[in-house]
Amino acid sequence: MSGLLKKLPTKLTNKRAAKVADNTRLPVEKPNSTLKPISNQFTKLLSVTKYLPAGARASILSKAFGKVVPYVGTTGIYYETVDPNQVVVSLNNTKAVQNHIGSVHAVAITLLAETATGFILGLNLPSDRVLLIKSYSVNFYRPIKKGQIAAVASLSDEQRLDILNTPKGEMVIPCVIHDRESDSDRDPIVVEMTWAWIPKSELEARRQGKAAKALENKQVDNKKTEDEPSKNQPSEDKQPEIEQSESEESSEHSTQELESN
Q1: Is the dihedral of CA 138, 142, 144, 148 positive or negative?
Q2: Which end of the chain is more exposed for a tag (fewer CB within 10 A), N or C?
Q3: What does the pLDDT look like over 11-56, one tens digit per residue?
Q4: What is the pTM assigned to this prediction?
Q5: What residues pair up with 108 in beta bridges, in sequence order?
Q6: Can you give the residue ranges of every domain in the chain?
């Protein structure tokens, strides 16, 4: 937790990380909840910032979480709502994230969905487990307008309890993409993000096992290299034959010299 708190900005600013579009009507209502948040580094950060004004809180969380996942921090993703039951993140249509027709690039939208679903799982995962993306699918059904995009990930209390009570598992985290500049009722994109989680101890054991196996293979390769004779050097069993042949030739020359005398 101390490491995450160090990522908080030391000075507040009135400038928001991204301007939220006027049309912020969410396509998915926030689920009602009676569950208390679990205690991990993310929920502790939410507790520390919960009394701040909404705009300042969103800016602080965006900067802090952007440093937790450095690549996400470079894209300008803005954390509007961060709650154990719902996470809403948005991305402005800037030049850096555009495709060839001026709308938000497909990869940027995929990252937006991955961020929303990953963080809502992280908010509900005990600190002795680690989350990993397993698979995802993204289907585009209509062109995206040239405006702001939001991803909304939601979990019911039942799903949250399932995550809490399952030490090792996986789940498709529901996520909706909101094209805020469009008045169409048709979803522009349908995404499915499948996340898995395992105990940290198991992940560490796997890493140590792979490291040990790699070291063992290296030692075997080194042993084989040492055992192989050099191609340019004659082997020891061939050497006596060469020496014996030279000795016989020398003896023959000496006998011939004696006979001639």
Answers
A1: negative
A2: C
A3: 444 444 445 555 555 556 778 888 999 999 889 988 888 888 988 8
A4: 0.70
A5: none
A6: 2-199
